[in-house]
Design a protein that fits this description.
Length: 202
């Protein structure tokens, strides 16, 4: 991989990791409701899950799914249903200070965040596009690994920034009613963030 191609890959990974989408909407909400430190497993899970998805697609999963389109369709709709469930959980989350001080719900775990990437339409579009654009047939396995590692590394700062946005925003949402409104808005934004991607698959 040439330096120019590597630089373009880093920029692409940064843009895809930083722009609004299901992962970043959930991180923003988690930062508000649970704080930065409790959201770290969620952040790590995104990086780990994206890396595994990229490796799987790079080493043949995408071609396999194209041979069995029903399985691919199942993943698409399962992802949509799972996202609706997550949106419902966010809408019904309570702030840390509410009630007993522990709030309702809990932040997403590392395993849950990693597993979510497999039903996240934006992650699939990103992974397929990255593998089609930045791998090299003459050194295919090596470039697949490089692409996966670059995304895993770049995801770290991006997820941290979105979580910190939530932590900062929390200062303006101390009122339980304001926090409730925020959670509902984030839930709606999470659902809306899927529409452009799902429309491409329908």
């Amino acid at each position: 991989m040439s330096p120019e191609m590597f630089g373009a890959l880093v920029v692409f990974a940064g843009v895809m990791s930083s722009t609004p989408g299901p992962n970043n909407m959930m991180l923003l909400a988690s930062g508000v409701n649970f704080g930065f430190w409790r959201t770290i497993p969620h952040m790590l899970g995104i990086s780990f899950g994206v890396m595994l998805l990229l490796l799987a697609i790079g080493f043949g999963l995408h071609e396999l799914l194209q041979r069995w389109p029903l399985f691919f369709t199942t993943i698409k709709y399962a992802g949509g249903l799972y996202l609706l469930w997550l949106a419902w959980k966010i809408a019904n989350s309570g702030p840390l200070e509410e009630g007993s001080g522990e709030g309702r719900g809990r932040p997403m775990s590392l395993i849950e965040a990693a597993a979510f990437q497999w039903v996240n339409p934006k992650a699939w579009v990103m992974a397929v596009g990255a593998m089609a654009t930045y791998t090299n047939e003459s050194a295919y396995a090596l470039t697949v690994i490089i692409v996966a590692l670059v995304f895993a590394v770049v995801c770290g700062p991006a997820t941290g920034i979105w979580t910190m946005f939530g932590v900062v925003l929390k200062r303006f949402l101390q009122n339980p009613k304001a926090n409730r409104v925020f959670n509902v808005v984030m839930a709606l934004a999470l659902v809306a963030s899927l529409w452009p991607l799902l429309r491409e698959w329908l």
